[in-house]
Amino acid sequence: MSKQDKQQCCCETNSLKEAGASAGHTGHNWNSKYALAIAAMALLWAMAYAAIQPVAHWLAVGLFGLAQGSPLAESVEFFFYDTAKILLLLAALIYAIAWARAGLNVERVRDYLSGKARGLGYFLGSSFGAITPFCSCSSIPLFLGFTTANIPVGITMSFLITSPLINELAVVLLWGLLGWKITVAYVIVGMVAGIIGGYLMDALRAERWLHPAILEAIASMPAQATLVTASASARKISLRQRHDFAWGETSSIFRRVWKWVIIGVGLGAALHGFVPDNWFAQHLGAGEWWSVPLSVLLGIPLYSSVTGIIPVMESLLGKGLPLGTTLAFCMSTVVVSLPEMIMLRQVMTPRLLGIFVGYLLIMFTLVGWLFNLLGSVTM
Q1: Which of 239, 225, 247, 224 has the alpha carbon at shortest distance from 95?
Q2: How far is CA 253 from the centre of its chain?
Q3: Fewest 10 Å CB contacts: which of 35, 104, 285, 302?
């Protein structure tokens, strides 16, 4: 090799090194800016979430001048509070799940949960639902994330059923109201309902009845998983890649469901302040067999979180409604509400939604009959 060729080769090598150093420096700068941006957004998100309740109250009572405690004021405040809460959760949770999924071997997780550990998966999905403090509508963002991550539908259903039924605050309130025996029985029933529901959905191969948009997202996962795996074998997944993937997922899902969140919460808010609870005690307090399925059906149009329904439960029991009938009504209100069904329609086809709701109505009716029977035996 001539001296001139050696000099040219050295120049090219130095140029490549400088380009690589420049790219690395640029990537480091982007990562630093990204970390600062995420920290700032997280702080703003937390501040916004903490301000939802007082702002919703101010809008209803202060800005609109509605009488505090009136049915209309309660409904308007409920609408602003729940709409903002669900949209904030939707954006944050879908982004976080998609961000983590970008570097996750989804096929490996799916295969593990689909194989020998499927029974464990139902239990884990139900357990995760029990420790997450979400109402039925707030659980849907996580359900969407799990589904698009190609986690088996039965496991996501176990989470979706149990999450609104059980949380630590509800357990404390229920313990103080009914004692530890009823509280433990309620938690077990909620967990079992989630596990059985998950098994049933997988037995029916319910994934084929998901919404076409969800099926398209799932169908694209093998290609994405291959791309991510190939990238991971060559080098570590960059933060920019994770962000781009997560932002695309969040934007796509948010654009499709935000209006249905508003419609669903609006319907729940319209009913929230205008249905007197004493009507149920007057008409369903005799403890007839038909009062349980009727109470389940009457709970569907309503919408409340499990912690919000505990005072209603106390009021109904105080007015003479049997325990089983009360539990069936409250479980239906918490899990099978019209707002939730409107939102789930963006995830499920009518057939799957019908099976899901039908299962819950049957399960809650059986629970009501069981607790009424236990109550009559112990009296």
Answers
A1: 247
A2: 14
A3: 35
C-beta atoms surrounding 275 within 10 Å:
14
Closest by Cα among 192, 203, 206, 216 to 331: 192
- Comparing CA positions, the residue from 129, 130, 112 lying closest to residue 121 is 112
Q: How far apart are CA 251 and CA 36, in angstroms?
A: 21
Mean pLDDT confidence for 222-226? 48
Residue-wise pLDDT for 238-292, tens only, equals 888 888 888 887 887 788 778 777 876 776 677 566 655 566 666 666 667 888 9
β partners of residue 348: 210
- Residue-by-residue DSSP string for 172-195: HHHHHHH-HHHHHHHHHHHHHHHH
Q: Compute the average pLDDT of residues 83-92.
A: 82
DSSP symbols for 123-152: HHHHHHHHHS---HHHHHHHHHHHHHTT--
CA distance 37 to 41: 6
Tokens of 203: 């037995």
Residue 194 and residue 162 in contact, taking contact as beta carbons nearer than 8 Å: yes
Handedness of CA 355, 361, 365, 371 (dihedral sign): positive
Q: Find out whether 304 and 332 touch, Cβ atoms under 8 Å.
A: no
